[in-house]
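dude i think i finally got it to work??
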Amino acid sequence: MENENTMTEQQDIQDRKSIAEFFLRLHRHHYNVDQSAASQVRNIGVDGSLYTYELEVDRDGLPETRRMTISLIGDGGGSKSKCFKVSYDDLLVIKIPPKPIETFEEYVESISAERKIAAKLAPDVEFVAPGIAVIMKRVHTLADGEGASSLELERKYIKWLRKHRKYQRFLKVKGSFVFVMDLSRHAFLSEVLDRLHLRGEMKEEVRAEIIQSHDLVWDVIAFEEKYGDDVSSVSFDMPKVFSEYETEIRNFLDGRKKSGVFTAYDKHQWLIDHLAEKEIKLDPSVHSEKFQKELNSAVLKVMEKNRDIVQSYRNTVRNYIRNVKFSQNKAKMGGITTNVTELLACLNTKGLAIRDLKPDNLFVVGSPELNPFLFSSADAYSLGLIDFETAVLIKPKNHKQIQQPLRAGTPSYATPLHMFKNEILQEIYGDLHRILHLQDWHAVVGIIYNVVTGETLFEQTRKWLSKIKEITKKAAEEKRPPSFVVQFSGKNFWSAAQLEFRKKTEENEKALKSIEIILPETFHPLLKEQMDYVGRKITKSLQKRVISQVIFSGDKNRNNLIKSSYEEIHRYRLKWEQGGGAPKTPPETREQIVSLLKDLERLKALQKTHGDIVAVTGRSTARFTVLELMQAMFHVVIRSMYNEEWGELKTDALEKAEAEEEKSSHDETTILYESTIMYE
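look at this
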């Protein structure tokens, strides 16, 4: 996997450079510089995933330079296009297809197909689809283009490019046509979430807080008052660190008296700098580099000796900042949750399944005068869509057959069903339209969790998706049907998903419960409709199990089993297992009875859980906590995609997925990051 990661990194570097060269072509054209003129691309800085490039062309012996930035959106690739966010005058998205598009007509056809799907959303959902005019208006101004609508302008440029073929090069990266989208008026949802959760900014926030509030470590009462009663051990331990530090730094300076005179404030500030993970920097004209290096080492010695205390202190400050920011952003998180459910309901109405919903494919639509990071009311904005590569119409006109979509998805937001053909899903589930729609539900559950916690929900579960190719290959060798692969992969995936969902929602229960939303009028009835479907499915599975068994014959016995409560079945099962009061029967018959009762107990427990969730979703008010909403939606997804006839979900699937982390360095089938996957 290390070699694979290195190859991926090298490919990303090459792709970024190729995109920079793509814009260098535009830069050269802007100054009307000949193609043979000297030019170059320089990588002049990296800030996280954001790369800054300087473009330079020689114009009559003088350099003309400009800057641009490029960052990878997600970790695309594989059998799905790779997307980059580019700032070049405007904010653009460059999408590189996995298979090179070499002819202009194929390129136009691909753009048209994606635009047709996107257009189904209008006017209710805003979208950004690929277009030719985005780039070509920077290359050539059409005489009859002024005042034309965006669609008309596209048609005019297509017609013009068919006639002036040499200009088609401005739409190519490494010889292949690329898709370009203009996002200059919008912010990605992922960017908004980065801001909400201080991604990339937390260290600076912690540093600022430590520096600002360092005096509190000398006042236990004030420390606990600000950071909480549960951090008393930290407030008592930190003065000890200060005391040890003073001894250490005094001894250090006593041996270096020629290095200068330092005040108590200076010495105190050095420790604060290191607590804030900042290196001490002194005036180089006064203090040698050697002295500064030795000084930092002396302070680090104290930090290392008291590593646990120091880390607890930093964590205390970090948690305080996180809690403060969470309280400030609760309304924003609730608004995003409301709007993502609104979008989901609209997709259902429009008969469209996106099948790759994620924060990187959503953008904020609101008044251009307002900063999207300041929105607190759900009514102030909506969510728009970008990237329809995996999308499919699930309610085609005139009862036409649903087209086969690209079998791909992003692991943290995908299900095993993303990887199988329509006919297999139809055979197993019957309702293809519904199962495709619920793939978006699964993604939304993950998005909502990410909105509130800033974390990935199915981080371990997603690793089971990388096994589908291996399972499929083995099943083919053993001449097993595709339905076996769906069942086998589904059992492992949904076992892990159920455990990981329960574990993480329990860990974040307080936060998930603290945010209340009012479900949109469009989504609340849809949720009830899906819950009713699941209820019927559970009841059908229970009846099927009772009717198919031959141990307890007769209508009366079967009706009693169907009508019995979970508690009654549980007591009956214990009675047969323990033998107390149960009729004497052969051991093999007893085993069959216990096995049947275990199945019924599981289904009755499921029926009971469903009833509890219905009691919440069936309330007259549409007000829910985020936790209640997630539980209801995940219940709909897992109970729809996992067939109860497959048996009890496994208890070790999550542990096996987590174990992949340890051997990931040499196991190439493990997905360690957010890459796009597809298996034939």
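The longest strand covers residues 62-72.
im so relieved honestly
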